[in-house]
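Task: sequence design from structure.
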């Protein structure tokens, strides 16, 4: 398997990655590997295509006013 080295990562970014790794019960290396694997699965062209397909499927559908639903829930 290949290896990469990433230099000059901001300390705050590393701390957030460590926190995320702890939350997911993984090592920092495993967390970064997971992030890279997920981000490499789909390219932007494919992502845009999928978004357009979803928009087309939902075209013409009516959705409730979310603000109104929140108000109704608060009034209960």
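Answer:
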């Amino acid at each position: 398997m290949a290896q990469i080295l990433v230099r000059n990562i901001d300390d705050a970014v590393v701390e957030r990655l460590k926190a995320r790794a702890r939350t997911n019960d993984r090592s920092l290396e495993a967390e970064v590997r997971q992030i890279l694997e997920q981000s490499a699965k789909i390219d932007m062209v494919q992502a845009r295509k999928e978004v357009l397909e979803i928009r087309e499927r939902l075209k013409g559908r009516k959705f409730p006013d979310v603000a109104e639903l929140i108000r109704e829930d608060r009034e209960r």
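The chain has a mean pLDDT of 93.
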